[in-house]
Amino acid sequence: MSVDDVKVRIGQAIGAAAEAKKLIEQLHTVAAEAGDLALRTVHDSEQDCVKEGRKHFTAAIDEVELVLRRIDNCVKHARAYRKALG
User: Residue 65 sits in which domain range?
Assistant: First the structure.
């Protein structure tokens, strides 16, 4: 495999990461809307299961946001590597 082949593969990986990011962003939007609706529905509840549910919802959104940041960092480093190859 030549350096040019590697650069092409890196470009394909960057494109795949962009597609993945779009899907994860859609997931984030849908999950946030569903979670907000659920939280508004039970906003005044002090039941333990509702409190636990709020924690899980927050943790889920945090994980989705972490994935988005990781994709961004992956693309940043892949671009830097491709650039270093010349």
Answer: 3-84
pTM: 0.82
How many structural domains are present in the chain? 1
Complete DSSP assignment for 38-78: HHHHTTT---HHHHHHHHHHHHHHHHHHHHHHHHHHHHHHH
Place of tokens 């990986």: 13
The two structure tokens encoding residue 56: 């899980």
**Contacts (Cβ under 8 Å, ≥6 apart) of 14:** 75, 78, 79, 82
The residue type at 85: L
Asked whether the beta carbons of 38 and 53 are under 8 A apart, the reply is yes
pLDDT in tens, 61-80: 999 999 999 999 999 999 99
How far, in Å, are 3, 7, 79 from residue 85 at the CA level?
7, 8, 10
